[in-house]
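Colleagues,

For the teaching module next term, I've prepared a clean inverse folding example: a structure given as tokens, and then the sequence designed for it. I'd like students to try predicting residues themselves before seeing the answer, so please don't circulate the second half yet.
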């Protein structure tokens, strides 16, 4: 069941996270949006992790690294 709807949701949450990080400077909300985007696998969700190409794994790992970075910025800049 390959659904293009997941891809649109994934891209939408990535764009929302980018907007929140770059223009609103709300890094915690950006981390949440980017993290929610990971729930909508833009690739074939029925494909096993070991069978995926390396570039698909890299895209998901980079997204996860962005979530961690935004969370770190949100916690670090709001530390009082």
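(Answer key — instructors only)
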């Amino acid at each position: 069941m390959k659904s293009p709807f997941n891809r649109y949701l994934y891209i939408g949450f990535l764009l929302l996270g980018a907007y929140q990080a770059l223009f609103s400077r709300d890094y915690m909300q950006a981390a949440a949006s980017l993290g929610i985007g990971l729930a909508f696998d833009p690739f074939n969700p029925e494909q096993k992790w070991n069978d995926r190409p390396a570039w698909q794994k890299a895209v998901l790992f980079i997204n996860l690294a962005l979530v961690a970075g935004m969370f770190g910025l949100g916690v670090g800049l709001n530390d009082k």
